[in-house]
């Protein structure tokens, strides 16, 4: 029996779990950054004072763009990535 | 109906933020897991190429001097060459690892273009400050990318590169057409708006 391999498996699984945790935090952190920015600089959100604003000022609001990037990343990239990492973790279990 | 130029910077800031998140995620999970789904390996090179394509309309509609036009044209070409080379490498059509040099060269050219086309000092206005900061950040990032050509598995360099891209997006989001920087605004710049 190779005890070296037996010792390495839990270490590898622990590493995978840390990776899952870090990847799953990227999107929420990005969205949180956008929300914090909106609170710190509310005047960057034209939706809060929409009267008399043109199309672009209503459509493009930087804190919302940051939130949008976080949501898109979380849904389309992080989710399948976490599934793959967890699949790998199951494979080593 | 054209948006103000600061909004174009925010648009690109969103794209660059996505680029940085993709790079960071790849560093965290490792190349092997990242490549498990085939479409994923094309994500960031494709996005870089797309940003290069989108730079052409910016060059056409949002530049007001020859030097601005040349700088934006240089970025468009550099981003497309970088994204194209990385796409070719990801697909396996390009075999030589020297194609990886397209990334540091592209980023270096972009940094130089930023520094050369900004004719005002650091504290002239926020946009001038950010042009200098972005330029030097890109020059630094190109050195990191060059190191990655020779040490592609260096985790520290991969992380530094991804974080530099995210920092770049923060700089692009901070851009305003006319605003002070740390309380400094040259009277020659004009009156700041909201």
Keywords:
heterodimer; A: mainly alpha; elongated; B: 194 residues; mainly alpha
Q: Can you describe what's shown?
A:
- The complex is a heterodimer of chains A (93) and B (194).
- Chain A has 93 residues and is mainly α.
- Helix content of chain A is 80%, strand content 0%.
- Chain A contains 3 helices and no strands.
- Chain A has helices at residues 3-40, 55-59, 62-92.
- In chain A, helix 1 (3-40) packs antiparallel against helix 3.
- The longest helix of chain A is centred in the first third of the chain and has 38 residues, at 3-40.
- The model of chain A has no long low-confidence stretch (mean pLDDT 84).
- In chain B, 70% of the residues lie in helices and 0% in strands.
- Chain B starts with a helix and ends in a 20-residue tail after the last helix.
- In chain B, helix 3 runs antiparallel to helix 4.
- Chain B has helices spanning 5-29, 31-34, 43-61, 66-91, 102-117, 126-150, 155-174.
- By secondary structure, chain B is mostly helical.
- The mean pLDDT of chain B is 88.
- The chains are: A mainly alpha (93), B mainly alpha (194).
- The interface between A and B is medium-sized, with 25 and 25 residues.
Query: What's the mean pLDDT score of chain B?
Result: 88
Oligomer: heterodimer
Distance between the termini of chain B: 20 Å
Low-confidence runs of at least 5 consecutive residues of chain B: none
């Amino acid at each position: 029996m190779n005890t070296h391999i037996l010792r390495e498996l839990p270490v590898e699984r622990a590493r995978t779990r840390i990776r899952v945790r870090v990847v799953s935090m990227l999107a929420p952190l990005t969205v949180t950054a956008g929300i914090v920015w909106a609170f710190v600089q509310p005047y960057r959100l034209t939706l809060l004072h929409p009267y008399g604003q043109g199309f672009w000022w209503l459509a493009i609001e930087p804190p919302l763009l940051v939130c949008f990037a976080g949501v898109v990343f979380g849904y389309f990239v992080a989710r399948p990535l976490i599934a793959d990492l967890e699949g790998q973790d199951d494979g080593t279990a | 109906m054209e948006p103000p130029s600061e909004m174009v910077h925010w648009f690109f800031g969103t794209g660059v933020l996505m680029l940085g998140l993709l790079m960071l995620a790849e560093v965290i999970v490792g190349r092997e897991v990242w490549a498990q789904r085939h479409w994923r390996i094309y994500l960031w090179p494709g996005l870089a190429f797309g940003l290069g394509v989108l730079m052409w309309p910016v060059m056409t509609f949002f530049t007001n001097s020859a030097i601005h036009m040349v700088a934006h044209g240089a970025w468009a070409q550099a981003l497309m060459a970088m994204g194209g080379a990385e796409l070719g490498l990801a697909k396996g059509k390009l075999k030589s690892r020297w194609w990886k040099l397209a990334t540091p060269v592209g980023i270096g050219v972009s940094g130089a273009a930023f520094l050369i086309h900004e004719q005002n000092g650091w504290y002239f206005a926020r946009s001038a400050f950010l042009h200098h900061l972005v330029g030097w950040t890109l020059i630094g990032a190109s050195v990191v990318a060059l190191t990655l050509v020779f040490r592609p598995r260096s985790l520290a360099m991969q992380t530094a590169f991804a974080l530099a891209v995210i920092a770049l997006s923060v700089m692009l989001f901070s851009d305003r057409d006319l605003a002070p920087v740390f309380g400094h605004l040259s009277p020659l710049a004009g009156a700041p708006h909201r």
